[in-house]
Amino acid sequence: MTDLARVIGAYLDHLTVERGASPNTVAAYRRDLAKYSAFLRDHGVDSIGSVSPALVADFAARLRTGADEVAPLAPASVARAVVAVRSLHTFALDDGASQHNPAAEVTPMAQGRRLPKALGIAQVQRLLDTPDLSTPSGLRDAVLLELLYGTGARISEVTDLDVDDVTPLLGDPSLGLRLFGKGRKERIVPVGSYARRALEAWLVRGRPAMVERAARHTPALLVNSRGDRLSRQSSWAVLRSSARQAGIEVEVSPHTLRHSFATHLLDGGADVRVVQELLGHASVTTTQIYTLVTIEHLREVFLSSHPRAHH
Question: Catalytic annotation on 258?
């Protein structure tokens, strides 16, 4: 095994074990680094410490233009490949496999901002109406959907909740829900009456029936059919199934409800900095992309409604 192959293997293991990257992310990085490795071999380089900044820049340029051996990629794929190469060399430097980082000055190409996709209020209402409230799993699904849309929480923030996190706010409507976002950054979000009622029904009639099947006690708020903590993957499956039942034809993910939460708040007149706090964004710039969605919505209403909108 060459030095280059060994370092790439160690880096991919690092992504999986220490960084907790998803299988899809690791698979994408593996493909990107296989292209990079083949490119370096074609240039007579088989050691990570022998890579020059010029070679890294040349690889990135070939990805963008489709020159010679490397097939052209979409802008997003080029950006991801450059990030993979930069991360590999950072890892090699930190790990002592290289004395320099030849990729430090190579940056991912800028991409156009993609507007987040939000559901309409009627679509969200159909989605929230799908759980069968006569069953324990239906009561759980109702809580999951109400919290995702009602608080704008990330899927991991909801699945990480314990019973003790929500019981205080059920007795005091003035209390908010404490969530921990990226980097364990804490924020408090208000919880509306619909989500509170869903939580009460789940804790009284649903959760006790489902935790009876558990092999061991769990503090988790949301549990699966075995009584264990509900995973992000299972939560996503619940959401997709509910979207199909609701007749929603567009692809729906947990982030779709987060996008919908933000968009509907801004449509209703909320200040962008309030929405920033509710979403847990470090910068208001991240939140401002939602204002573009509402502006586009206003434009559509204007074009379809105002007599002087069309020539």
Answer: yes
Among 6, 19, 182, 299, the active-site one is: 182
pLDDT of 268 reads: 85
Query: Does 210 lie in the same domain as 284?
Result: yes
Q: How many structural domains does the chain have?
A: 2
- Let me know if 35 is a catalytic residue: no
Q: Which residues contact 220 (CB under 8 A, 6 or more apart)?
A: 159, 161, 162, 163, 228, 229, 230
State the pLDDT confidence band at 311, using cuts at 50, 70 and 90: very low
Question: Does residue 93 have a pLDDT over 50?
Answer: yes
Kindly name the residue from 11, 29, 149, 290 that is annotated as catalytic.
Answer: 290
- CB 155, CB 177: distance < 8 Å: no
Specify the residue for token string 């890892």.
Answer: 91
pLDDT for residue 69:
45
CA distance 204 to 209: 9
Task: Give CA–CA dist 80/150, Å, rounded.
Answer: 33
pLDDT tens for each residue of 111-128: 445 556 789 999 999 999
Catalytic: 207? no
Q: Tell me the average pLDDT across 189-207.
A: 95
Does the active-site annotation cover 255? yes
Does the annotation count 297 as an active-site position?
no
Host domain of residue 244: 121-303
Catalytic residue among 35, 86, 154, 264: 154
If asked whether residues 19 and 131 sit together in one domain, one would say no
Answer yes or no: 154 catalytic.
yes
pTM score > 0.70 for this model?
no
Tokens of 207: 């959760």
